[in-house]
Design brief:
Elements: H1 12-25, H2 29-58, H3 67-78
Length: about 80
């Protein structure tokens, strides 16, 4: 995977914390930051999927469509999230 440089500015306290965490986990600070981004992204995605599941659960569906129609409908509704 190609990567690109991204510059962030940290105050003294955040730099200290990042160095401390980096030493504690034995990984570079950049790895810690990428892991934190991944975890935050996964959490946001989990919340989004949970909200979608709740909306589906609140729907009053009388005639359940066949599987192909349902997949198509769900795919369209996901594009609007």
């Amino acid at each position: 995977m190609a990567s690109e440089r991204y510059e962030i500015r940290l105050d003294t306290e955040h730099k200290r914390r990042l160095r401390e965490l980096s030493a504690a986990y034995g990984v570079p600070g950049s790895t810690l930051l990428k892991d934190m981004i991944d975890k935050a992204y996964e959490e946001q995605d989990r919340k989004r999927r949970l909200a979608a599941a709740r909306r589906l659960g609140e729907m009053e569906i009388e005639d359940v469509p066949d599987m192909e129609t349902l997949k198509r409908q769900l795919g369209r509704s996901r594009d609007h999230l």
